[in-house]
Structures are given as C-alpha cells and as structure tokens.
C-alpha cells in the first residue's frame, strides 16, 4: 500500500509531501531550561550548529547541558518538505531527520567540543535508524554552517571512525552536508525531557571515546557539565 512504503529508504524530492507555506503551530519564545530566546535573531557573537542523532528529545538535552551553549531547539532538517509537522516527518515522506539546533558561544565551547559530544552520544554507524527508532527521520547528520565546520566534521568523523573500527564497529553513516532550512518542531517537542523528565530517551552511545577529547586532533578542552548533566549521563546515553 502507498503509505506503508519502507521508511528506511530516502525519498526523492518529487515523492516528498508538499508541506505548508508557513509554520502551522506556535513555538515558545524562551528555552524552558536556559530561559534564553528559542528563536532567532541570536546575538551576533554566537555560532550555530545543527546535528541529527536520532530521536531529538534526548539529543537536545545532551546539548543544553553544556556550558557555553546559549540555546537549543529541536526541529526537522535535511529533507525536502517545507514547514513539516511531526506527523508528516514520521510518515517518512519529508526526507527530514530529527535535528537539534545548537547556538553556542565559541569563546566558551568550540565546535569541535560539540562534535565530541555528538559522536560519543550516539552510534553513528547505524544508517537509517538509531537504536529502536527506525527510519530516515533518525539518521545521523551534521549540517555545517561554513567550510570550517565542514572540515571539523570530516576530520573528527575520520578520527572517530578509526577509533570505532578498533572497537569492532563498521563505517560511519553520518550525513555531512551544508545547512539548509531548519524547521522548528512543535512547541511540545521543545525541551521535551525537561517537561517530561521520565519521557522516552532512545539515545545511547557506543562507549568509544572521540579522539578530539584525547587531544589527538586539538588540545582537549575539558567540557564542563552541570551536576544535573552528570547525573543524567548515568541514566540515559
Ligand atoms: N520512539 C519514540 C520516538 C520519539 S522521537 C521524538 C516515539 O515514537 O515516541 O522521534
């Protein structure tokens, strides 16, 4: 049947749902944890990063816990359908992956530090799934803002792939592509695990350390996590 097509196969632009001309739902103005603005414009001295690492509920929490992160938001990226709804994304017919927008202060935390968190938080060798969550909407992705981010993404991927191989894992399937539009997800998905503390979190890393942390690629900056973050790390991902 038309709608039961396999969700692990990336659709083509012509197959994609038409979506909407504008967002059809409201997004809160402020971050529920950090109390910073959730929507642009952001202060000029900050940088942005976009990562996909499976279900965005747990993924977003990983990043809002890092010192130097100004705000985070969840949304849909990397696909074709404009202003999609969660239901449309779950149909597998938008081409989008669940993504996290991270706005950070590069004086306090570097993009490579964020990449280390990204690589270690999930299993980037799973193709069109992440754990029990299956489909193109859960693929691992890095959408870079500029050439410097692209280089950092590719270099850390190569280094992490080598580390993973040593631990018996296969190739990294992470999509690394230029950042296109980031469509904010519905308000209830924003900071979901703060609003629903025992909510579903499918995020789980491989346990293999990213060489960035070990100072192989850059001098390692010790990431400072809050106490809440350290506690959560023991429970999820
Ligand atoms: N397996 C989870 C994924 C949620 S995530 C926002 C669920 O279906 O609730 O994709």
From TrEMBL:
Gene Ontology BP annotations: cellular response to oxidative stress
Which molecular-function annotation in GO is an example for this chain?
Answer: peptide-methionine (S)-S-oxide reductase activity
- Pfam families to which the protein is assigned, alphabetical: PMSR (PF01625)
Taxonomically, the superkingdom here is: Bacteria
Q: Where is the Peptide methionine sulphoxide reductase MsrA domain?
A: 48-201
User: Which of UniProt's keywords are assigned here?
Assistant: Oxidoreductase
Provide the transmembrane region boundaries. none
> Which InterPro entries does UniProt cross-reference here?
Met_Sox_Rdtase_MsrA_dom (IPR002569), Met_Sox_Rdtase_MsrA_sf (IPR036509), MsrA_MetSO_reductase (IPR050162)
Q: What are the positions of the active site?
A: 55
Which Enzyme Commission number(s) are on file for it? 1.8.4.11
Gene Ontology cellular-component annotations? cytoplasm
Database matches in Gene3D superfamilies: Peptide methionine sulphoxide reductase MsrA
Q: Which reaction does it catalyse?
A: L-methionyl-[protein] + [thioredoxin]-disulfide + H2O = L-methionyl-(S)-S-oxide-[protein] + [thioredoxin]-dithiol; [thioredoxin]-disulfide + L-methionine + H2O = L-methionine (S)-S-oxide + [thioredoxin]-dithiol
Which EC class is this protein assigned?
oxidoreductase
Name the family the entry cites. Belongs to the MsrA Met sulfoxide reductase family.
Role of this protein? Has an important function as a repair enzyme for proteins that have been inactivated by oxidation. Catalyzes the reversible oxidation-reduction of methionine sulfoxide in proteins to methionine.
The protein's name: Peptide methionine sulfoxide reductase MsrA
Q: Which organism is it from?
A: uncultured Rubrobacteraceae bacterium
């Amino acid at each position: 049947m038309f709608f039961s097509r396999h969700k692990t196969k990336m659709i083509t632009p012509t197959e994609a749902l038409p979506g909407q001309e504008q967002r059809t739902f409201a997004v809160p103005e402020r971050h529920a944890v950090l109390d910073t603005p959730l929507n642009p414009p952001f202060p000029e001295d900050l940088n942005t990063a976009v990562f996909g690492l499976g279900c965005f509920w747990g993924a977003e929490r990983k990043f809002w816990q890092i010192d130097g992160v100004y705000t985070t938001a969840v949304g849909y990226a990397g696909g074709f359908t404009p202003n999609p709804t969660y239901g449309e994304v779950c149909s597998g017919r938008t081409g989008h992956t669940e993504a996290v927008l991270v706005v950070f202060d590069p004086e306090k935390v570097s993009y490579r530090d964020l990449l280390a968190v990204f690589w270690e938080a999930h299993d980037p060798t799973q193709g069109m799934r992440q754990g029990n969550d299956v489909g193109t909407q859960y693929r691992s992705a890095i959408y870079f803002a500029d050439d410097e981010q692209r280089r950092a993404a590719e270099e850390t991927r190569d280094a992490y792939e080598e580390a993973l191989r040593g631990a018996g894992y296969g190739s990294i399937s992470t999509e690394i592509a230029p950042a296109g539009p980031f469509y904010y997800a519905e308000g209830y998905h924003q900071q979901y695990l703060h609003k629903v503390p025992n909510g579903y979190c499918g995020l789980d890393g491989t346990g293999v350390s990213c060489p960035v942390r070990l100072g192989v690629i850059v001098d390692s900056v010790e990431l400072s996590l809050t106490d809440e973050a350290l506690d959560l790390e023991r429970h999820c991902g």
